[in-house]
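Q: Give me the 3D complex with guanosine-5'-monophosphate.
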Amino acid sequence: MDCVFCKIIAGQIPCSKVYEDDNVLAFMDINPLAEYHTLVIPKEHFEFLWDCPAELSAAIGSALPKISRAVQKASGSDGCNVLNNNASAAGQAVPHIHFHIIPRFENDGVFT
Ligand code: 5GP
Ligand code: ZN
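A: Here is the predicted complex, encoded as structure tokens.
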């Protein structure tokens, strides 16, 4: 499987890990839009959110609040965006489900 995130899960590519449980891994984005920009991925490979089975979706849904709270605390941000891009039309570059947690500050201009 030629998937960069599967290689990270397998330990073949290093990452800066911030959270891990049986189903989910979170690590720092290599090209962050803001400091502490974090990616949350399921450990099992699915390309699109609509492919994700209910139990795995629940595991991701359970992990996201915990990880976003940790990102919020570490970054001291005023808020955050949680984004999931599906397919190239929506800006997906890596074909493995992932959620961006992007710390935001008032008037930071990261997104308009
Ligand atoms: P997408 O555009 O698919 O929603 O976002 C993919 C994200 O994965 C990008 O923000 C990009 O910087 C990040 N990314 C791509 N390759 C790697 C990698 O090898 N390591 C890490 N930590 N992040 C990566
Ligand atoms: Zn993968």
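A quick observation: The longest helix spans residues 54-75.
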